[in-house]
Amino acid sequence: MEVEVKLRLPDSASHQKLCSLLSPFHAKTLIQENVFFDGSNSELSSNLAVLRLRFSNINNNTDNPHSVLSLKAKPVISDGISRAEEVEEPLDSTLARACIAEPWRLLSVDSSSIIRRVKDEFGMGERGKGLVCLGGFRNVRAVFEWQGLKLEVDETGYDFGTCYEVECESADPERVKRLIERLLEENGIGFSYSEMSKFAIFRSGKLPS
């Protein structure tokens, strides 16, 4: 179970102010490309499951991007705290790129426990049940090591606009949420509780109001 605090920042100015404030604690910046897949008849999304390939480069270094396959299920987000079942596995980046153009290749990765689960639970790979690529979005993630926490400050670029968010994974999300809220409030940075996942925003085709 992945448990994350997710607070939405209202605009670019708030995002820049937070990043400047946290700059002494900067660990790395990840340039992420997120690409999603579903069954041709929405077999995954209709069961609240999300299959994602993520490519990550550190500090704009485009050499040998790290690629990860993940499956998220049963997401719930409430009062700025997100909970979801999540499994992740590394995947060869060359193969991962090929799967975007030819999604059927994903179902041929027999070594993947995620793909086995997708086949077993959702019937993918059976007659007439293939994968389709839904597209995706780009995310710039600045990672800060602050107060013993790993804060991730995101600038997420969709075709229809940009969202800003601060995230932190924790087993004690209520305490962490209070810490982050205090940091933002004491420095005059506006925020609200995130109500949708990035994937849900992508699928809606519009920025949250």
Characteristic terms for this protein:
single chain, 209 residues, alpha+beta, Hypothetical Protein Pfu-838710-001, 8-stranded antiparallel β-barrel, 5 helices, globular
Explain this structure.
- The chain is of the alpha+beta class.
- It has a single domain (about 1-205), classed as Hypothetical Protein Pfu-838710-001, CATH 2.40.320.
- It is about 25% helix and about 45% strand.
- It is built from 5 helices and 9 strands.
- The chain has an 8-stranded antiparallel β-barrel, surrounded by 4 helices.
- A hairpin with a 2-residue loop joins strand 4 and strand 5.
- The longest helix is centred in the C-terminal third of the chain and has 14 residues, at about 175-185.
- The two termini are about 30 Å apart.
- The mean pLDDT is about 95.
Element layout with pairings:
Blueprint: E1 2-9, H1 12-22, E2 26-39, E3 49-58, E4 66-78, E5 81-90, H2 93-101, H3 113-122, E6 131-146, E7 149-158, E8 161-169, H4 173-186, E9 192-193, H5 198-204
Antiparallel strand pairs: 1-5, 1-8, 1-9, 2-3, 2-6, 3-4, 4-5, 6-7, 7-8
Give a brief outline of the structure:
The chain has about 210 residues and is an alpha+beta fold. The protein has helices spanning about 10-20, 95-100, 115-120, 175-185, 200-205; strands spanning about 1-10, 25-40, 50-60, 65-80, 80-90, 130-145, 150-160, 160-170, 190-195. It has one domain: Hypothetical Protein Pfu-838710-001 (Beta Barrel).
- As a percent range, the share of strand residues is 35-45%
The CATH class is Mainly Beta
Order of helices and strands: EHEEEEHHEEEHEH
Distance between the termini: 28 Å
* Strand element count: 9
Q: Find the CATH superfamily.
A: Hypothetical Protein Pfu-838710-001
Report the major sheet.
Answer: 8 strands, antiparallel, barrel
Average pLDDT number: 95
Q: Widest sheet: strand order?
A: 1-5-4-3-2-6-7-8
Helical coverage, percent range = 10-25%
Provide the low-confidence segments as ranges: none
Helix-strand category: alpha+beta
Overall 3D form: globular
CATH hierarchy: architecture: Beta Barrel
Report the radius of gyration as a whole number of Å: 18 Å
Number of domains: 1
Q: Figure out the total of helices.
A: 5
CATH topology: Hypothetical Protein Pfu-838710-001
